[in-house]
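FAQ

Q: What does a record look like?
A: Structure on top, sequence underneath. For example:
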C-alpha cells in the first residue's frame, strides 16, 4: 500500500497522498479501466506520466472506498463522473495528492522543492507581495507562494485569471505548517480565501476548501 497520508481536514475536506513506489503493471492491476480510460493511458508516451495517471485513480479509489471515474471539463478541471465529490489533483516527482469534499470547492497544489525557484520569482510574485529576506527561508517561502497561487487558480476554475496580477497572497511568516490568506480578482469581483500549508520531506503542500 502506497498511501502515505489520508486524513480529514478542517472544512469538511479530506486529503490523500500517494507515494509512487509501484511499477506500471502493479498499479494497473489495482484498477478496472473502461475503453476510454485505457485509450487515454495508452496515449501517454512518457512512462512517468502513465504512472502519475494510474496513481491518481488508485488514490481516488482508496479515498472513496470504491471505484470512481475521473473526468475533466473543458478547462481541464477534474471531477468525478458520479459527482459524489469535488476534487482537486496535484502530483510532483514521486508523490500524488488529491483533495476532496462533498459540497465545498477545493484546490490543492504540491511541489517538490528541487528547482531554483528564485530564478522565476518575478513571473509570479506581484510587487505588493512580500517575501522574507532570510536567505535560509527564501526558497521555502517562494514555494509556498507558488503552491498557494496554484491552489487558488484551481479552485477558481482557471478562467480569465492572470497568475501574477490577479492572485495576491497576504503577507505571512513561513513555518513548517500554517495558514495564509489570498485574494483572487476576476471579472466576477474579488474573493478572499483561506489556505493551509505543510511540508512533507522536501515537498510543499498547500490547499484551500471553501
Amino acid at each position: 500500500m502506497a498511501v502515505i497520508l489520508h486524513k480529514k481536514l478542517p472544512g469538511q475536506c479530506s486529503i490523500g497522498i500517494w507515494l509512487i513506489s509501484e511499477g506500471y503493471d502493479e498499479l494497473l492491476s489495482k484498477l478496472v479501466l473502461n475503453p476510454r480510460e485505457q485509450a487515454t493511458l495508452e496515449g501517454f508516451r512518457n512512462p512517468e506520466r502513465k504512472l502519475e495517471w494510474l496513481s491518481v485513480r488508485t488514490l481516488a479509489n482508496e479515498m472513496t472506498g470504491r471505484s470512481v471515474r475521473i473526468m475533466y471539463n473543458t478547462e481541464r478541471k477534474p471531477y468525478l463522473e458520479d459527482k459524489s465529490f469535488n476534487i482537486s489533483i496535484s502530483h510532483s516527482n514521486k508523490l500524488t495528492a488529491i483533495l476532496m469534499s462533498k459540497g465545498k470547492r477545493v484546490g490543492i497544489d504540491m511541489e517538490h522543492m528541487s528547482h531554483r525557484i528564485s530564478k522565476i520569482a518575478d513571473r509570479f510574485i506581484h510587487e505588493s507581495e512580500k517575501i522574507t529576506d532570510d536567505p535560509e527561508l527564501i526558497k521555502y517561502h517562494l514555494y509556498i507562494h507558488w503552491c498557494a497561487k496554484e491552489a487558488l487558480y484551481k479552485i477558481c476554475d482557471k478562467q480569465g485569471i492572470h497568475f501574477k496580477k490577479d492572485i495576491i497572497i497576504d503577507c505571512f511568516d513561513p513555518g513548517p505548517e500554517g495558514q495564509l490568506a489570498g485574494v483572487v480578482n476576476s471579472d466576477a469581483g474579488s474573493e478572499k480565501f483561506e489556505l493551509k500549508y505543510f511540508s512533507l520531506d522536501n515537498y510543499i503542500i498547500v490547499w484551500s476548501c471553501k
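Q: Is there anything notable about this one?
A: The radius of gyration is 17 Å.
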